[in-house]
């Protein structure tokens, strides 16, 4: 099934009793994808997972990125995320399609489209140096339809800065805590809030931080309940997971 008409025909087949609902669901989950030789674009990811495929820009040529984005745009995909894309590649992409480029996190949003923002996700950083990873998380969550509150430079070296934002923290459905060095921010926030905390270790720090490994291990060993941990510098993964948590909470509230 390559278009809406094919899906509509499948649904009509279910209505006629020629296809079981279970078989139709399986077909929708399994198809389709487009083979561009250098990439196989999964057009039904939004049906299976609720969000369209995201393009990891590092390691891809500008031509490959443009080709993938154009193919997705032709299928009416919007707010297409391209992570870890450099300035030169972003400029080539912008020459081909509508793009919003954010140089700090090196993230592009192709075919940007405004959408209603739901719930509230807080993205907090230990320091200003963590902003690149934090912005990747925040922009990912916003592109997926979530309201995001940014609390930057509220690390444990000056705890009063974090405590001054308790209202924002307490009203969040999910908090993304981004920190390098010893990574203590996630544990502190985890001990204050009643929502899930997604800890993001960053590679910020001096030699003994081992490129973020120290923060990663600290976050994994957190004594605060409700903390989960993503990979080092994985702002995208944190923003995506925060969106899933926020959207699920929104559905629960609507059902009530």
Automatic annotation (TrEMBL):
The PurE domain, residue ranges = 119-251
Matching Gene3D superfamilies: 3.40.50.1970
NCBIfam families linked to this entry: LarB
What is this protein identified as?
Answer: Nickel pincer cofactor biosynthesis protein LarB
What species is given as this protein's source? Claveliimonas monacensis
Q: Output the Pfam families linked to this UniProt entry.
A: AIRC
Taxonomically, which superkingdom? Bacteria
